[in-house]
Write a structure and sequence with these properties.
globular; 5 strands; 3 helices; 5-stranded antiparallel β-sheet; single chain; Gtp Cyclohydrolase I Feedback Regulatory Protein, Chain: K; alpha+beta
């Protein structure tokens, strides 16, 4: 049976993204595990627009095998994107090396 791993990209404020303001200078990347969340904050470079950075994040996750599977809201101000990819078992990962 196939097993999946999941992650969530969040802190996507609709106002700051649409107006390219600097209300949020980072996005949160959360990997969902059996033990809970593993959180990473990804800082938006000052010379990159929010919209361009969002595209870079989505493309980067795609290059790592993540597939966009959903979108949602966190309260009224923030949006999040959900991704999944096929989970590689430890013995299969050794075969790939």
């Amino acid at each position: 049976m196939q097993q999946w791993e999941y992650c969530r990209l969040e802190k996507l404020s609709s106002m700051s993204w649409m107006q390219d303001s600097r209300a949020n200078d980072f996005v949160g990347l959360y990997r969902l595990t059996e033990r809970g969340f593993e959180e990473s904050k990804v800082t938006i470079p000052k010379d990159v627009s929010h919209i361009a950075f969002l595209g870079m994040c989505i493309a980067g996750l795609g290059n790592e095998g993540w597939e966009l599977v959903g979108a949602g809201n966190i309260g009224e101000a923030y949006h999040c994107l959900y991704f999944k990819r096929l989970k590689v078992k430890h013995d299969e990962a050794k075969d790939l090396e």
